[in-house]
Amino acid sequence: MNHATIDPTADTATGAAADATGGEALLQREQRLTEALRPFAVVTVIRAQPPTSAWVGAQALLEEDGALHGWVGGGCSRAIVIQAALEAIRTGAPKLLRISNAPAAAEDGVEMHAMPCASNGTLELFIQPTLPPPLALVLGATPTALEACVLAQRMGFAVAAAASVTVPLAALGLRQVVEGYDAAALAALAPRLVLVATQGDADEDALEAALRGPAAAVLLVASQRKAQTLREAMHRRGIAPQRLAALHAPAGPHIHARTPQEIALGAVAGLVALRRQMEEERAAQAPAEHADALPVVLPCESMAPAAPAPAARYVNPVCGMAVDIASARHVIEHGGQRVYFCCDGCKVEFEREPDKYLPAARGVRETT
User: Fold this and answer.
1) Tens digits of residue pLDDT in 56-100
2) Is there a contact between 342 and 329 (Cβ–Cβ < 8 Å)?
């Protein structure tokens, strides 16, 4: 599992409300990720019961590597939110999250978590993942290929194309157009699906380039007889049998197509069918693959088991976590000594019952 990281510009010492600039920065980051075909999740606070540093409407954006941008609460809830958002990205399903120690009956569709910090506040958050559309690469500039580019975009695919002559493709608003069928250049696009609609224009070169790339499936617009001839040609060119298994010909369901528009319709139907099939397979595999991958959420901001504290660290008297003195944001003066906390919840708990934690605080020594 990827290790979660925190955007150092995301927080302030007080957790003050985000201004318009912060919201705009999240929107700009979301736009960049969308354009780059990168998955992400937007987390929105829909309920906040004090004591908590979050507020209703607060938002954050989580990238697929665990980087969190924005503010939806302090260290006590952040680890839980990151884990839940990463899972939402993996499955593509939204989540409704509740983090609280208050007694509550289980609700369908609500993922319940205990609040690991002593503050005992309550947070409810909605997590909406955004998965990029799969990139479909269309090979050819035939009438069928041009129509397939248009239809595939309407069906929600990100579409790139390659052809010997690229002029006909220029006006279609595609993500990228490549001239020729160089296998390395096409593999660099990392298409999920490839549709070969060359129909007599460098068929073998185009099909070989497609099969030598990373695409999960290669769909070929051809009759069964021609498809068999091309399979044999690919075998002679050194394409391994297991890679040839990725070839689908005919490209889509049999719809008695005659015109280029009808042929393209059937081929794009094949793209849609394979896309949904892959999504279902991924969703079915995600729980099994990641059931043991999520780390245990430890109290407060700790993301790893307790270890000997490095230099200039202090042991939080409430939860026992080692706090870096130089960067500590939650500090109070009590009884003539400075007391450091990992989060606001622990500080509030100490202030509520200082006598309970004073022996621990007095016994603490800064590590050197």
Assistant:
1) 999 999 999 999 999 887 776 888 899 999 999 888 889 999 988
2) no
Which contiguous run of DSSP H or E holds residue 267? helix 260-290
* Distance from the Cα of residue 360 to its chain's centroid: 42
DSSP category for residue 133: P
346: number of Cβ within 10 Å? 30
The CA distances from residue 188 to 148, 209, 215, 275, 322, in Å, are 22, 11, 11, 20, 46
Burial 253-282 (b: 16+ CB within 10 A, else e): eeeebeebeebbbbbbbbbbebbeeeeeee
| Measured CA distances, 223 to 151, 195, 227, 256 (Å) | 21, 14, 6, 12
- The pTM assigned to this predicted structure is 0.61
Question: How far from 334 is each of 29, 191, 343, CA to CA, in Å?
Answer: 42, 61, 17
Contact 107, 124 (CB under 8 A): no
Q: What pLDDT score was predicted for residue 360?
A: 66
In this structure, the dihedral spanned by the alpha carbons of residues 140, 143, 147 and 152, taken in order and rounded to 10 degrees, is -20
What domains appear along the chain, each with residue ranges and CATH number? 20-132 (no CATH), 135-280 (3.40.50.720), 313-363 (no CATH)
DSSP letter assigned to residue 168 = G
107: tokens are 């609700």
pLDDT tens sequence across 114-163: 877 666 778 899 999 988 888 999 999 999 999 999 999 999 999 999 99
Chain centre to alpha carbon of residue 248: 29
